[in-house]
Amino acid sequence: MAVRIFLFTLFTFLFSLRFAFAGSGLVASISGVTFVQGASQFWVTSAKPTFSGITTANTPVSGTVGSQTLSATADASGNWSWTPTADLAGDNTVSITSGSQTVSFTLTIGTLPENIASASGSTLAPAGTYLPTLLILGFGGILTLFGFWGLKRSFAKS
Q: Fewest Cβ atoms closer than 10 Å to its Cβ: which of 39, 62, 120, 140?
């Protein structure tokens, strides 16, 4: 019984780690800037920004960026990247698809307008910080293990 509980807890922990290390999603960064999932508009200053992200390993990634066609294939780890062949300018409609995942937004080439709030790198937590998640997950796993152990002992006394 204890071995089954331990294996269940270990499986749950490892399964959860898969999502903790999964990265930011289909589009993870644009021109080295972390992409905010769900954003309807994103600004970069580079006329040829490199798009990168994570999807299922060896899966094709396709879409459009402005008038250019995006075509890439994820590597064995699920990472992909693509850089436009021609310069982009102004607002560009972006639609990227891989399997059942689709991301759509407007990419603006230029500086971030002053009326939009921004913060310096020293005031924000770095993107991809997973340590708090792992600590909470580990603590929850330990509590679950002790809970199952206590439940087992209470039934053994009955």
A: 120
